[in-house]
Structure formats: structure tokens, C-alpha cells
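QUALITY CONTROL LOG
STEP: pairwise intake check
CHECKER ROLE: data steward
CRITERIA: each record must contain a sequence immediately followed by its C-alpha cells, with no blank fields

ENTRY 1 OF 2
RESULT FIELD BELOW
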Amino acid sequence: MNKGLKRALLLGAIVISAGFAFPVASIAQDDDDDQYDSIIVTGAMLRPGGAQDIAHFRSVSLDGEFLPPSDSLTVEGLLAEHDLTLPRRKQCEQLFCLVGHSMAAAIPLRPQDEYFVGLDFDSNIDADKLKAEPISVIAVVDRSGSMSGEPIENVKHALRAVLSQLGEDDRMGIVIYGDDTVVHLPVSDVDGHRREIDHAISSIEIDGSTYMEAGLRLGYETAFRELDKSNGKTRLMLFTDEQPNVGDTTAEGFMVQARAGAERGVGLTTIGVGVQYDGDLAAEISSTRGGNLFFIDTEKDARALFARDFRNMTSEVASDIVIAMTPPEGYAITGVFGVPADMLTETQEGTVTVTVGSAFLSSNGGGIYASLGRDASRQHLPPAPLTEGQSMLDVQLSYVDAKNGTPGHDRIAVPGPDASAPEGLQAAMALVDQYLALEQALDAYHIGGDEKAAFALLDGLTNRIENLGLPGFENEIELIGGLRDRAAYMSGYTGEIPGELRPLALVGEWEVTYRKGMSGIARGDTVELTEDGEFVTSQRRDGSETYQEFEVNERQLRLHPEDGEDAEPTVFAYRLNGDNLNLRTRGGEALISLVRR
């Protein structure tokens, strides 16, 4: 959907996160050790992360676009929205401990999978003590033209939410960038200066282009100067819609800065904002050691995010984490879900290694998930039998304590399926099923042009998810059901357009059949409602045209006066019946009846 239609639909900012599901069959042999992402720690548990949600995908799935592309749908983000904690088998007595469970695989789009294995993480960490450590926050704020309006206001709400979480030993500073890059607020103690910090937040104004390279550079310089003054840790927090257009705009250029900052003890949290946000660049920057990525789209979301996760997202626990998974003889790891592809390597013996850079506190439990199937030697044979007590997966873990540099290790043998699979593992497999089916359905629609195939995939997924009866899946049922209804309409299985898509049905050319109380429009005139939010009237009498802007939601159409006029917009309730459209003001003073041309 183009930006004009997004504006016309009055539907606010969207949310994005980045992540991957990765089939092991295409794992590259990669000896590059400079691969980093984040594992997320929750309370006394750890989980792999990077993407923290699929809020962007949920947003575009519920706006005016018939079916969204799959670009912003990520398996990490989907998994991270749910608490998928697995039962502990023993008490953890170190920073990182492995927890493993398995079950028979039942993923319709992956019939080759025999088993589904979940790796969760436990810890003896005192999360409250870690979160209480003082922090210096240097906010780097994009104030370029693309951030005007709601995005910059949401950044201000977010900065105030950050300020509300800071205590008497914490410090805060603000760097802003647009055409110019300046230290807007020198780093200072929060205690005794809250009013001044709040005033500095309020006074941020929009300024031209997006020189993000310079913004990050000055941000890091400010953070490095703060290291000796901070009462604890120091973290950069970048607020941006990721639209750099000045200086070095490549991901590698920004990652060089992020890596150098991490080496000196300054991590980077990226907060995405804005309707035009494109998270690909942010995902790469935040994949460096010490990096993580979140998104906000409303004032309410900003408050909720920082109230829930501020101390988590700024609390790095460990680094240089390596997880090696080895399947039993006769089996191969056929898929790994929850980590980006460039974090995986595979040996000829079938061991798959995940290498990640940092661990942070988080709100949900969960882990890495692997599917197992027959290896190449048994492609035409039954699955290899597993003897009693034989492990389903041998897993080794190594890491470095982020606070004191002490190395640590753990190792477990994941047992075969229990009589009843843990609820967290069932939920994780259902979410992987959801991710795969959504991705294939949306690609069938956008790439293959096959509406009926998209509907069949979404219809089957709807039935599976609803029949599982798992707690906490209400949002998934709403999401999948809404997409299914749209696909049913698009494929001709129902003639009733879903309510949230009604605004799209107004786009097109119409002929005026009746009008009352409206000047500048007459019977027989042609009206075109464009995707860019323009209401174009072509007069039959002399061929002249007038251009007005309009905005529309599910119930009302707001028609603005022509440029230069000071009158208030005219608000119509509208009724669409087949090829007939009626616009009527609340008191009935104005009425326009149209028929589609």
C-alpha cells in the first residue's frame, strides 16, 4: 500500500521487528567469528532474541491492505511475544543452564520432520539486582522530515517514559540529528534535573534530512566521555524510522560504529518508530554484540514498553554465547527456528552451531527450537529407532559473563518425548506452524497471484490454531481469522468485504446521481477517490477539475476544503451498497449519491 492510502485511512504508525526461521538444509559453511545477535534473559531464564514482536506485521494486517506482504513477519518476533518457558529438570547453579524437551513433530508444511525439540535456558542470576544497577542513557534522536507528526511525538512520549524509569543514581543525555547533529542535552544527573530534561524533550523539533551516520558518531563520542562519569553502565538508545539519506547509509558502516562501541562497553538499543519505518537496517545494526531492537507505535505502547522492559533491554548479562546441537545417528537437524541464518554453521557430522553475541534480561521465557528428520542415509528407510534412554539431541553451551569476563559451560542430553509434551513446547510448535503457513499463504497471494491457495492455507491454519485450545493465543486467532476472512473475500468465497477493508472499496471513479447542500458539484459530474487520498471532481459542464484531500475510516469520510480555503472539513457518514455510494452529513444538510463508473 502506498503512503497516500495509509494517510487516508487514518491508521497510525506501524511496528516492525526483524528475524528468521532457517532451514538447516541451506546453512552455509561459515568460519566468520564476527557474528552477533542477542539472546534474551527473562528473570532467571534466557531466550534467544533480536526481534521482540511482530507488532508491525499485526498492524499492517489490520489496516487497509487486503493481505500484507510477509516481509515483516518473523519467527523470532512471533515466538518472543509468548512465554514459552519449559519445565526445569534441576536447579540451575550458574549464569546459564540448558533445559531441553522434545515431542513428536506435527507441522503440516514440514512432513519430513519426525521430532520437535525445544531448548530453554535457566539461570541463577539475581535479575532484580542486575536491573537496579545505575545507568547512563544517551538518547540519539532522528528529527528528520520523515519523523514529523506522530513519529516524533511518539519519540517524545518514549523519552518521557524512559525518564520515568530512571532513578536518583541514573544519568541521561540527548543527541539529535537531522541536517545538523548536536548535543541537545548534555548528560546530567536525573536527580534534581527532571524538569530540565523534560523541557529538553519537549523542545526537539524537526530538521531536514536523515544524517544517521553523524548522529550515531556524536552519540558514541558522548557515551565514551560519559564512561568515567557514569555511576554504572552506559548505553546508547537510537530512536529512528530508519530512513538515512545523507553520509554513509550502508548497514556495514553503522555496524562498524556499533561494534566499536560494544568493544568499549557501550551497547546499542534501537527503538523503531513511524509509518515509514523499514527495520532491515535496524535489524542488522542491532545484531551486533550488545545490541537489541524494539518498536513503538503509540503513546500507550511507549509507556507500556518502557515500564515493562526498560531495565531488561539495558541489562546485558553475557556475551560470546555458542550453542552446539548434535542429533543421534540416523537423524539430521532439518530446521532451526528462532535465530538468524548467519548465526548458524553446520559440520559434516551434522552438528549445528549457533553463535550469538549478547544476553539481556527480558519479560518472556523461551528458547531455540530445532526439528529433526531422517538423515541422507535413511531417506528411503523408516526413521532410525531410538533405544530407551537414548538422547534426542546432545547440546553444549559456552559463554562469557558480561560483568566479570568469566567463561562458563553447560551440557545436556535432551531426552525423547514424554508421555505429555510441555505446554510451552506445544505452543512453540504451533507458532512455528503459524509462521510457516502465514508466510506461504502471503507469498502465494503476492508472488504467485493465487488467492485461492492463500485462502486454503489460512483456512487450514485457522482451524488448527482454534482447535488447539492453548492459552494466550487470542491474538493469534484474531490475526489469522482476520487474514482468512480477507482471503475468502479476495478469492470469491464470500461477497461480504471485511469491515476494516471497507475504505478500500471507495477508491475508484464515481458519477454523481444526486446532490443536496453542496456547492461545486452537480449531477452528472465525475468524482474520483484516489489511493493517495485525493477527492477529484470533474465537472460535466466545462471539464474543470477541483482537488480536495479526504480521509476515511470504516464509518466516516472527512472531506477537506480546496487549498487556500479556511473552512472546516465536511464530515460524511457513508453507506456503500454494491455499486452505490451515499455520503450524508450528520444533520442531513448535505447529501451526495454516487454510482460506480
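ENTRY 2 OF 2
RESULT FIELD BELOW
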Amino acid sequence: MSNEEKNANNFWGPDIVVTIPKDRLAAVEEEENRIQRAMKRGEDGWRYFWQMGRLPKKKPRRVYFLWNNAVRAYHEVLFMEGGDIGFINGNITRIWLKPEIHEITPIPMEPFRGFRYFHQNYDQTRRTD
């Protein structure tokens, strides 16, 4: 392994999973549909963010999303903003995400608050349909 690869591995942390609350699910789906339509029209520059109470110690490559009692999709991470907890210098802690939605075969999981580290091999969960 080259030094560059070692440094990249030290930079990235494990993926995380977050729950989309039931009361926000319709709004999240509406926003995703709106952005996907805009991207199909050729509009660039779209991205999402997920507001966090606290951020992971290292930037994850992916944020997986759980709803209806299963992990069902992920977005790749662009960058993290803010600090360890809540508001830092008036800024909300967020993870900014690429707009592409990657659906996976659902993985059963109970909903929870906050985030959890997610040690799942994407190649084993890739959706084939």
C-alpha cells in the first residue's frame, strides 16, 4: 500500500447510518424527487445536507438512510461542516451529500436517534434490479 493510500485510509472514517423520522419522510422524498427531476433536466450544482446533533470523528464515505425499519439507500459524502456537537460559532453541524441516490437491498434495522457507524460491505448489498 502506498503512502497516499495509507493517508487516504486515515482520513476516511467508517460509513454511518441515520434514521429518517416518520414525520419527515414525505418531505425528504419530495425534496429528493424535485432534485432528481432537476438533474434530469441537466441542472448541475445540486447537493443535500443532513443536519446532525454531532458529527463523526472522521468523515464517512457514505451516509446510509434507514426508514420503514430497514436501511434502503445511501448518498456519498462531500464534506462535513460545524463541530463536534450542535451549534459551533452559530453554525449547524451538517454532512453535505452528493445528490445521487444509491438504493440497496433493504437491510432490516430498528430506528434510532443520532447516527451509528455502519460496517456494511456495499458490494454485498448492491441492488441488482
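INTAKE CHECK: passed for both entries
DESCRIPTIVE NOTE, ENTRY 2: The radius of gyration is 15 Å.
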